[in-house]
Amino acid sequence: MTTLEFRNVTKRYRVRGAGKMLALDDVSFTLESGRTIALVGQSGSGKSTIAKIITQLERQSAGDVLLDGSPIPRSGRGLRRYRQQVRMVFQDPFASLNPYHTIRHHIERPLRLDKVVPSDEIEGEVRRLLERVRLDADSTIDRRPHELSGGQRQRVAIARALASRPSLLIADEPVSMLDVSIRLGVLNLLADLQRESNLGVLYITHDLATARHFSDEIMVLNRGRVVERGPADDVILNPQDDYTRALRNASPDPDRHFARTTASPAGAADTEGAPA
Ligand SMILES: Nc1ncnc2c1ncn2[C@@H]1O[C@H](COP(=O)(O)OP(=O)(O)OP(=O)(O)O)[C@@H](O)[C@H]1O
């Protein structure tokens, strides 16, 4: 069991000519393997700042971020091990993959860096990871990102994140840049992988309906403060905070229901896994 804990975390950004800007105000939560927490809030509420602190792109101004009770190491093997355990899926599958490199290269890299398998098993492991994200390995492995659709690229990004066999996955708006018709397929895939690997997932989203469906718990952020949290159904069906109610009322369809979340063969839930 792996646990990532935010304990009273505050983040102030220095803004030129305007002093400091409070982006996170005393935020505490615990993400553990096997559970999915959705982090919801309007633009500017601080969601990405939490992701940046977790991935060490930013440092908190105050408070503690602890992995299994210890502060995140700042350098060396400890930091490498932390980065292997906590992986990120970014919003933009177009920007997060290097256009000059093949899909094979993208997935091989973390396998080599983290010495996940012996060298002679890397090829097989790349193929296995592609199949895990329901991509056809033969027709995908030697392509470059621009030869794939947005949904296929995001599947490659997920395969790359899983390559290091992490315990926790931070998914920052993982489907918001994808065509609406294929979003559900990618979210179902993430849900399947979460269950198969007992991952802890922090699902950052604007979308209350998918937050409810794909998460155990929802945490609502407003201007850097957690204003409400609780079991997903409770937060959506019976919001206690005015801001959550406003978010819910502004949401196009917060009670929307979704089809199954069990593993599907490539192409069953959407056609993104099929070769182009
Ligand atoms: N590097 C930075 N320097 C100064 N202010 C920043 C910086 N990054 C974020 N902010 C400010 O911090 C606040 C929180 O931003 P953040 O990006 O975390 O919000 P968000 O909820 O992720 O928004 P979005 O959904 O639009 O990505 C915003 O007011 C933003 O303008």
From TrEMBL:
Entry keyword annotation includes Amino-acid biosynthesis: no
Gene3D superfamilies, per database record: P-loop containing nucleotide triphosphate hydrolases
Domain of life: Bacteria
Domain ABC transporter residue range list: 4-248
Pfam family, one: ABC_tran
Keywords tagged on the record: ATP-binding, Nucleotide-binding, Transport
Species this chain originates from: Microbacterium yannicii
PROSITE patterns, alphabetized: ABC_TRANSPORTER_1 (PS00211), ABC_TRANSPORTER_2 (PS50893)
Disordered, as annotated region: 247-276
This protein's name: ATP-binding cassette domain-containing protein
InterPro entries for this protein: AAA+_ATPase, ABC_transp_ATP-bind, ABC_transporter-like_ATP-bd, ABC_transporter-like_CS, P-loop_NTPase
One MF annotation (Gene Ontology) recorded for this entry: ATP binding
